[in-house]
Amino acid sequence: GAVVSQHPSRVICKSGTSVKIECRSLDFQATTMFWYRQFPKQSLMLMATSNEGSKATYEQGVEKDKFLINHASLTLSTLTVTSAHPEDSSFYICSATPGPRDYEQYFGPGTRLTVT
Amino acid sequence: AQKVTQAQTEISVVEKEDVTLDCVYETRDTTYYLFWYKQPPSGELVFLIRRNSFDEQNEISGRYSWNFQKSTSSFNFTITASQVVDSAVYFCALSEEGNNRLAFGKGNQVVVIP
To answer: Which end of chain A is more exposed for a tag (fewer CB within 10 A), N or C?
Structure first.
C-alpha cells in the first residue's frame, strides 16, 4: 500500500514552453502533497506544500507564478513549470501524506525535467 | 527552525566493511520525527526508518542499525557488512510536531567497492 506515482518520469522540452507533472496517490487519499526539487548531487529542497482544495503554500524563494501547483482532488496534484528555462532542469519529486497528523510521507519516483 | 546536518559527503568502503553515517539535527520542538531514506541511482527515495523523539531505543533491521541519542541530537545509521547494492545516497530528515514539512540533510554518497 501507500503508492505514489508520477507522470511523466522523464520529459524534455524547449525553452519557453510549459510542462505539467502529475502526482497521484494510488491507494490512499492524500490530504497533503509536497513538491521537492533536487539538483544533481544535491539534497531535496521543498518547493511547496499543497492541501486538497486550497492554495499551495510556497517556500521562500520559490516563484509561485512560475511553478503552478493544483491539488484538485484527494489523489492528484499537478506541478506546472511555466515558461521553462534551462535553469529549471532538475529532478522533481512529489510526496503525499494521508492525513494532517500522519508524519509518514510517501514519495513518488520523480520526474526528470530537461529544458533545452 | 529545523535543520539537519550530514557532514560526510562521500564515503567509500570496501565490500563487507561497516559504514556509519552521521546525522545531527536541530529543532526547538520537544516532539519531532527523524527519518532515513536511501536514494539509489534510479532516483526513487526508499524509506528506511522513522523514529519519534520519545523513542530513544536503538533499532536493528538486518544489516542496518540506528543509534538515536537525544543528548547529542544525533541519529546515526550503520550498515554492517556492506554490499555493492548498498551504494546509494542516504538522506537523514526531520519533521516537527504539527508540521509535516521534511527538512533533509545534504546526504551521504556511499560507494561500496567490490
So the answer is: N
Contact A97 B100 (CB under 8 A): yes
pLDDT tens digits, residue range B4-47? 999 988 999 999 999 999 999 999 999 999 999 999 999 999 99
d(CA B69, CA B57): 9
> What percentage of residues in chain B have a pLDDT greater than 70?
100
SS3 B43: coil
pLDDT value, residue A35: 96
Among the partner-chain residues B37, B101, B103, the one whose CB lies closest to the CB of A49 is B101
CA distance A19 to A115: 10
The CA distance from A85 to A92, in Å, is 15
Closest residue of B to A2, CA-based?
Answer: B47
